[in-house]
Each structure stands twice: as structure tokens, then as C-alpha cells.
């Protein structure tokens, strides 16, 4: 038995489409199928089915539909092969559960195929994307009304656009331009404003020699975007349009070049528990996708203190932007704040990028700037995303920056990379207390947090609301299910044990902060080494906020020299400048500094 949520919602058994019943009964089944295998509470079900139009006796109405759905599923199962996987609708303490293999629900199946395709390459990737495209019969729950059904349709849009874009890119490389043109012509009817799909449709038309139709497609999409959204198409579609006008994409007589190197899909797995950062994600998306006149690839620089969640934010944002970069996503850990190992040199980083892209690396005698120019030639015209994680400084990443509006670059670092110039700088702050508690609850169990809410708030505050510290504390608690939250709070409240309890399996705040401190102590600049000494001395000041005058006295330095050292600590994210002449060291930094 299969439940089909894509297109018109229905159930298929023994190869036949079965009538589930009236609208609200189909909504009940859909609401359960979206969370197949997991409990859905009565309140959530009621909201999904009726929204604001709740009947006088919603529980009674819901129970009636549940009863009829159980009978429907039982009768449908009789038409199936006895060896088929059973389907049942059960009730547990937390709500109703649709017991079905999630792969038998097309919405979940297409998600699994998309994940598999992202991790695969070659024939496996092509086959996964073809199966995913075959499952798509239209926007989800097309025959169901209501706010919840509309939300499901909106949420599925980005995923499908990414799948369709990746499928089109692979099929065009294999020379299947006709299949791409035929399918995307229909898909664009459902998503007329989807610029990535319009781009691949135009590329397919040009590959078939139908340039005038490609130009007409652009004109239509541009008009619809202007009328409905009030702005021009993005830089990718605009640049493609200009290339078509110049005749650069008319490959009717040239054929399609098939690359033997697999497309890079290197992003680490998306974070299962991501909380907050809505404004930051919007900022990153806008910075990378807003039309701009210059040809350089848009770049965003994310910076912040150790453990604040820079890498997690960058990776999560990159996954949300997959459909903008169907020709590859490259991830490179630069080691800027890693402990015990030096950062990658620009030459080493370039060599890794060449290998990733399936290109021959320049010989070691070639200077970094010349190798960088060759790299830009390799990626010219490709729509790729480059994530440079944990950069040490601007000099390390300058040779790695790509060219062309079709590419995008996300960089993370401890210190602001101000020397890049003209780059969007995104400082990342700790989570709000309620967000930190929500993250803690996701990792330890909402029931434990609900039982001891005061202790949960106290724990995340002792963690400075830093995601790394909160995650580590939650991991320690999850490994000790017999501990109440009050036990962990007691251990964290003891300053002598706090950093120990924020470390597990080599991961934690102490290890993360060590990288920043080590960069100071091993720096050739005497001012940086003096800043490291100042960091230790400031830990004994006794108050969280220190004035420049008091710091100068504590360090036995002039105000000018003291300010130089303090600002070096601010750049290293080991001190915070809260106002001119005022600096703050949080408790975790203070405790770490006392150990140095």
C-alpha cells in the first residue's frame, strides 16, 4: 500500500487508486502520513484538519474519521499481497500513529531519494534523481484545502526545485536535453516563479537549438516576477539571458560536453537540531541571491566567538541554498582555530580545491596567485557554492575566492575578515535564553526540561547560551538518563568543575577556546603574545567589565599599549568590547584564562 501526497492525495493498493473519502478524512490521513511512524497529538490533528474552523465537538468528529480510516486501511490491505508490509493506525499516549514504512509515502520517499542523490554520484545519483522526478505528480495535497495543506505545499517547493534542478543538470550532461525541456515545461506551470527551473529550461532549449523559445521563457518569467514580486530576476537568470543573447549557449551544433568528474557534493550533513537564527539565515540568503551588477561571486563572512555556532549556521544555510547551486557544493575546513595543527596554507587549500573539482593541480612551483587564476578558469560559468570553514585570516582565503555571479562563497572565522573589503560581514551572537532552552530540550528530551524548567534556564545561562556549550551539556545529560537537571546544574555552578562538565569525547568549550589562545601565543607578532599574557591577567580582575584605565593599571602598561592588547583580544574573540573603553570577559572565558 502506498500513500501519495504529491499531486492529488490518494491511496494506492494492488496497483489501484482507492477513494479515501471526503475532504476532512483525507486531511486526517494526510496529517498522519506527513509524520508517518511518529505520534501526532489530537490537538495537532485537529488544527491540521480544521484550522480556525474547528467544529463544536472536534474530538468526536476526529474519532469518527479515525474509525472510518481504520476500516478503510483494513479493507485496502485485503487487496494487497499477504507478504506486503502491514499498515495500521494506532493510538499511543502522545497521539495517533500511522504505522507505515515511510518509503511507502511518496513525500518521504522523494526526500530520501534527494538525500541519497546528494551523497552519491555517477549512475546511482542519476537513477535516484530520475526516480524522484517520476514520483512528482504535482504540488502536494493539490486536492486538499486549508492553511496546513498550503503550508505543506510551500515547504515542499524548495526541496522539489532543488531535486528538479539537480536532475536537469545531470540529464543535460548526459545529452538528454529533450527530456529536460519536456518535463520542465510542465513543472514550470506549477512553479512559474522558480528561477532555477527557468534557467535549466532555457539551457535545455538552447541545447536543442530553440534559442527564441529560451528568450521567450525569460521574458515570461521576468514579467511574472515583476508583477507578483515587484523586482527583477536574480543574477543567475539575468546572466544566462545575456549569454543567450550573445549566442554563447546555442549548442545545437556543438553537442553536450560530458564531464567525467562527479559533481562535488561535500557539505557535511545538515544539523538535525537547529534553533533560531531566522534573521541570520535570511541575511545570508539575500546576500547570496540578490541581483548585483558586479561579476564577482557574492561572498558572506560569518564571524563570532568560539562555540557560538558559526559552522552550524553556515552549513544549515548552505543546505537551504542547494537549488541555487546545482553544479556543486564544495566544503573546505581551513583549520584557522584548530588546536595542535597549523591552518592550511593558501597553496594547500588550492590543491585540495583542484582535486575536488577533478582538475589537475598546478605544480608546486606555481605561485598562489597564478594557481588562483587557474582555479577561476576551472569554475568559470558553473553555479557552485564554496563553504570555507574556520578561516584564520583574509590572506588565507583571498586566493580561494571564486569569480562569476553564478558562484557563491560562505566563509566562517573567529575574527572579522575586514581586509577583504566590500564583503557582507555577519557577526553571530549567542542564542537567546528561550532559544538555548529549546535547543537543550531537543537534545535531552522535552519532558525533562518541562519537569525542571528553572534548572534548564539556569544551565543554559551557565553555558552563556553558546550552542557548543549547550550541546555538550545536553550530551552529558543524555548519557546519564538517571540524572535530574538539578544535578547537572549543581556541577556547572561549581566553577572548578564547569569546563570539565562542558567537555565530552574531546569536544567542548576548553578545546574550542584553546585554538584562539594558541594562535596568540604562537604568533610572531610580539603584541599578540603580549595580548595572550593580558588575557591571563584579566581573568583575575574580579569583575566582568573592565575599563581601559583599570586594565592599563592591571597590566602595568600605558593606556595606548593596554588598548592595543585588549583590541587584539577582541579580534580573537577572547574579550568583548561593549563600549569605547569598556571591555567584558564572560565567565567561561574567565575560567579558561585562569587555566592558561
Q: How is the main sheet built?
A: 5 strands, parallel
> What fraction of the residues are assigned to beta strands by DSSP?
5-15%
- Point out poorly predicted stretches: 252-260
Q: Which class of the largest domain in CATH terms?
A: Alpha Beta
Overall morphology: globular
Topology, number of strands: 15
Spell out the CATH superfamily of the largest domain. Answer: P-loop containing nucleotide triphosphate hydrolases
CATH architecture of the largest domain: 3-Layer(aba) Sandwich
What's the domain count? 5
What structural category characterises the helix and strand content?
alpha/beta
Through-space gap between termini: 63 Å
* Count of helix runs: 26
- Across the major sheet, the strand order is 7-8-9-6-10
Bin the helical content.
Answer: 40-55%
CATH topology of the largest domain: Rossmann fold
Alpha-carbon Rg, integer: 28 Å
What is the mean predicted local confidence, pLDDT?
A: 85
What does this structure look like?
It is a single chain. The protein folds into 5 domains: 103 residues, Winged helix-like DNA-binding domain superfamily/Winged helix DNA-binding domain (Arc Repressor Mutant, subunit A), CATH 1.10.10.10; 117 residues, Serine Threonine Protein Phosphatase 5, Tetratricopeptide repeat; 151 residues, P-loop containing nucleotide triphosphate hydrolases (Rossmann fold); 73 residues; 86 residues, Winged helix-like DNA-binding domain superfamily/Winged helix DNA-binding domain (Arc Repressor Mutant, subunit A). 52% of the residues lie in helices and 11% in strands. It contains 26 helices and 15 strands. The strands form 5 sheets. The protein has a 5-stranded parallel sheet with strand order 7-8-9-6-10, sandwiched between helices. A 3-stranded antiparallel sheet has the order 1-2-3, covered by helices on one side. Helix 9 runs antiparallel to helix 10 and helix 22 packs across helix 23. The protein is globular and about 85 Å long. About 2% of the residues have low confidence.
Amino acid at each position: 500500500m502506498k500513500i501519495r501526497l504529491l499531486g492529488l492525495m490518494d491511496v494506492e493498493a494492488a496497483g489501484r487508486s482507492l477513494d479515501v473519502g471526503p475532504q476532512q478524512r483525507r486531511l486526517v490521513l494526510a496529517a498522519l502520513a506527513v509524520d508517518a511512524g511518529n505520534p501526532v497529538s489530537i490537538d495537532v490533528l485537529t488544527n491540521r484538519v480544521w484550522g480556525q474552523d474547528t467544529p463544536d465537538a472536534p474530538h468526536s468528529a476526529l474519532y469518527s474519521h479515525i474509525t472510518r480510516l481504520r476500516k478503510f486501511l483494513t479493507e485496502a490491505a485485503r487487496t494487497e499481497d499477504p507478504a506486503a508490509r502491514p499498515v495500521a493506525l494506532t493510538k499511543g499516549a502522545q497521539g495517533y500513529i500511522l504505522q507505515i514504512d515511510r518509503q511507502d509515502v511518496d513525500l518521504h520517499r522523494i526526500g530520501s531519494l534527494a538525500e541519497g542523490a546528494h551523497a552519491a554520484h555517477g549512475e546511482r545519483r542519476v537513477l535516484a534523481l530520475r526516480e524522484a522526478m517520476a514520483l512528482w505528480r504535482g504540488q502536494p495535497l493539490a486536492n486538499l484545502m486549508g492553511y496546513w495543506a498550503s503550508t505543506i505545499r510551500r515547504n515542499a517547493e524548495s526541496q522539489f526545485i532543488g531535486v528538479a534542478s539537480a536532475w536537469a543538470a545531470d540529464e543535460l550532461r548526459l545529452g538528454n536535453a529533450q527530456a529536460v525541456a519536456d518535463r520542465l515545461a510542465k513543472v514550470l506551470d506549477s512553479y512559474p516563479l522558480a528561477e532555477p527551473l527557468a534557467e535549466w529550461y532555457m539551457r535545455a532549449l538552447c541545447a536543442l537549438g530553440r534559442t527564441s523559445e529560451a528568450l521567450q521563457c525569460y521574458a515570461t518569467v521576468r514579467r511574472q516576477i515583476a508583477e507578483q514580486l515587484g523586482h527583477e530576476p536574480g543574477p543567475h537568470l539575468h546572466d544566462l539571458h545575456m549569454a543567450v543573447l550573445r549566442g554563447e549557449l546555442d549548442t545545437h551544433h556543438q553537442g553536450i560536453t560530458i564531464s567525467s568528474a562527479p559533481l562535488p557534493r561535500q557539505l557535511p550533513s545538515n544539523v538535525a537540531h537547529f534553533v533560531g537564527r531566522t534573521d541570520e539565515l535570511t541575511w545570508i540568503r539575500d546576500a547570496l541571491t540578490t541581483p548585483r551588477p558586479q561579476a564577482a561571486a557574492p561572498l558572506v563572512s560569518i564571524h563570532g566567538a568560539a562555540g557560538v555556532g558559526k559552522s552550524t549556521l553556515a552549513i544549515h544555510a548552505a543546505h537551504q541554498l542547494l537549488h541555487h547551486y546545482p553544479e556543486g557544493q564544495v566544503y573546505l575546513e581551513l583549520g584557522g582555530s584548530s588546536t595542535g595543527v597549523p591552518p592550511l596554507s593558501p597553496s594547500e587549500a588550492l590543491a585540495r580545491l583542484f582535486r575536488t573539482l577533478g582538475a589537475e593541480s598546478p605544480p608546486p612551483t606555481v605561485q598562489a596567485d597564478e594557481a588562483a587564476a587557474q582555479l577561476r578558469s576551472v569554475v568559470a560559468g558553473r553555479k557552485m557554492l564554496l563553504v570555507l570553514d574556520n578561516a584564520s585570516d583574509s590572506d588565507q582565503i583571498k586566493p580561494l575566492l571564486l569569480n562569476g555571479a553564478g558562484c557563491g562563497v560562505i566563509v566562517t572565522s573567529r575574527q572579522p575578515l575586514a581586509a577583504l573589503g566590500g564583503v557582507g560581514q555577519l557577526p553571530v551572537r549567542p542564542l537567546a535564553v528561550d532559544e538555548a532552552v529549546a535547543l537543550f530540550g531537543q537534545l535531552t528530551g522535552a519532558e525533562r526540561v518541562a519537569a525542571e524548567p528553572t534548572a534548564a534556564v539556569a544551565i543554559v545561562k551557565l553555558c552563556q547560551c553558546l550552542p557548543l556549550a549547550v550541546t555538550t551539556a545536553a550530551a552529558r545529560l543524555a548519557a546519564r538518563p538517571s540524572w535530574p537537571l538539578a544535578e547537572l546544574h549543581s556541577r556547572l555552578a561549581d566553577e572548578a568543575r564547569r569546563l570539565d562538565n562542558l567537555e565530552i569525547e574531546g569536544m567542548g568549550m576548553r578545546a574550542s577556546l584553546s585554538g584562539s589562545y594558541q594562535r596568540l601565543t604562537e604568533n610572531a607578532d610580539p603584541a599578540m603574545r603580549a595580548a595572550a599574557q593580558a588575557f591571563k591577567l584579566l581573568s583575575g580582575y574580579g569583575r566582568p567589565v573592565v575599563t581601559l584605565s583599570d586594565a592599563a593599571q592591571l597590566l602595568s602598561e600605558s593606556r595606548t599599549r593596554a588598548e592595543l592588547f585588549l583590541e587584539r583580544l577582541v579580534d580573537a574573540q577572547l574579550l568583548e568590547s561593549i563600549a569605547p573603553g569598556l571591555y567584558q570577559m564572560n565567565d567561561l572565558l574567565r575560567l579558561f584564562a585562569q587555566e592558561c
